[in-house]
Amino acid sequence: MSGAVFFLIVNFVVALSFSTMFLVVAYRSQSRDGALWLGAGFGVASLSALCELLVAYAGPTRLWALGAFATVLCGMVMLTTGIGHMYRRRIDLRLALVFVFASLGLAHLIYDLPRGTPLQAFLYQSPFAAVVLVAALLVFVAHRRTGLDLFLGFLLLVTGVHFLGKAGLAVLVGSGATPKDYVHTNYALISQSLTAILMVAVGLSLLAKLVLEIVAIHRTESEIDILSGLANRRGFDRQVQALLTRNRQVSQAIVMCDLDHFKRINDTYGHHVGDVVIRAFGDCLRQHAPMGSVTGRLGGEEFAIFLSDASMENARELALKLRHATMFLSNLPRGLRVTASFGVAPVSAETELAEAYRQADLALYRAKNAGRNRVKLASASVDSLA
Q1: In terms of DSSP bridges, do strands 302-307 and 294-299 run parallel, antiparallel, or are they unpaired?
Q2: What residue spans in the chain does CATH classification 3.30.70.270 cover?
Q3: Residue 242: helix, strand or coil by DSSP?
Q4: Hey, what CATH class is 233-377 in?
Q5: Which of the residues 121, 129, 186, 226 has an alpha carbon 20 to 30 A from that of 344?
Q6: CA–CA distance, 305 with 111 (Å, rounded to integer)
Q7: Residues known to be catalytic
Q8: Distance between CA atoms of 146 and 317, rounded to whole angstroms?
Q9: pLDDT digits (tens, 9 = 90+) for 184-236
């Protein structure tokens, strides 16, 4: 068995394995359509190895040679379509089909040209290079590129250029006098080994992007309070810490909120109404919270808003608005009047988050002890009822 045949078998197994993995990942991925296209692309491309073996050891040669060309090209078009889905750049499938059929027609026309000539080699490899370079472009023009995205784009760029390099290599070392001779040439050995390396690198990068996406979705879901739709304590703390890390030098504040007599609401109206109150109050906080703030339900009837780049006066004004809005929550049973108490504390570069929580909690307790339905400040002499 020649080295090229060995790599053909390896490429077949690797491509089929990637196809299976992407189809499995599609079940949990937010980019489900993209993952399905990637799985189909690797699956179709894997068939090219079988076609190459049939070219070498069976007939008819022209049919299987065109089959090898078609499966690689169709697989790459599917991969590019999948990448387009992942990066929110849809591929025009009608245009893609026209390109595929035009390329197949070109492959048929150049089949009888002498192998290894510059014209034949370039015309054969250029459709592959064009498709992969389009995929690289889709990645590079995407918004919010991460290091992984840039690495993937670079790999796709190298893969596209490598097809053009293979055309030059075919001219230099020869790709065999006939298609049957291909698997016995040094060109085939180099070509298939390079394909194996690049396929694994691109496949793993795409798989890593989808897996990281799934992990991010699961983390987000685990940090959301299902009842209120706000961040839970874990999500709130993580988001606040991220803002503190970025904005250490600006004034920030935290507003602690607690629904008054919530246990009485549950006992009088039932837990279903209590859930309605939680949802309504969560909607109220979400509607009034300024852009760039973090809003969360810390547990039970306790909520919080972290305000980035806000003074204590800004935080106090927000708390007053929320206090007023809470008394007019919608979709509550007739006769039910809900109020809330608020404690406001500053957060600065010198103040630990835990200390800010403690100060805001103390202010909140003061609001409760003063008769509830009040706003109290932790570090200022001005308190407010209205």
Answers
A1: antiparallel
A2: 233-377
A3: helix
A4: alpha beta
A5: 226
A6: 69
A7: 301
A8: 38
A9: 888 888 988 998 899 999 999 999 999 888 887 777 667 889 899 999 998 99
SS3 (DSSP) at 5: helix
- 273-281 average pLDDT score: 94
| Tens digit of each residue's pLDDT (9 = 90 or more) over 49-95 | 999 999 888 878 899 999 999 999 999 999 999 999 999 888 999 99
**How far is Cα 240 from Cα 186, in angstroms, rounded to an integer?**
59
Tens digits of residue pLDDT in 146-169 = 899 999 999 999 999 999 999 999
**Per-residue pLDDT at 22:** 94
Q: Is the pLDDT of residue 254 over 90?
A: yes
Q: In a 10 Å sphere around its CB, with 0-12 CB exposed, 13-18 middle and 19+ buried, how is residue 123 labelled?
A: middle
Q: Which has the closest alpha carbon to 52: 8, 3, 17, 100?
A: 8
221, amino acid identity: E
Domain with CATH 1.20.1070 in the chain: 3-222
Query: Domain spanning 3-222: which CATH class is it, in words?
Result: mainly alpha
pLDDT exceeds 70 at position 309: yes
Kindly report the pTM of this predicted structure.
0.68
Nearest alpha-carbon partner for 130 in 185, 91, 169: 91
- Give the whole-angstrom CA distance, residue 385 versus residue 320: 8
Continuous H helices in 58-112: 61-86, 93-110
**Residue 68 is encoded by which pair of tokens?**
């090898």
Res. 139 pLDDT band, cuts 50 70 90: very high
Q: How far is Cα 281 from Cα 284, in angstroms, rounded to an integer?
A: 5
Q: Which residues of 195-206 are buried (b: 16+ CB within 10 A; e: fewer)?
A: bbebbbbbbebb
What is the overall mean pLDDT for the chain?
90
Burial 291-304 (b: 16+ CB within 10 A, else e): eebbbbbbeebbbb
pLDDT at 368 over 90: yes
Q: Give the contacts of 202 (CB within 8 A, at least 6 positions apart).
A: 152, 155, 156, 159
Residue ranges of E strands in 195-322: 252-259, 294-299, 302-307
Distance, CA of 249 to CA of 138 (rounded, Å): 38
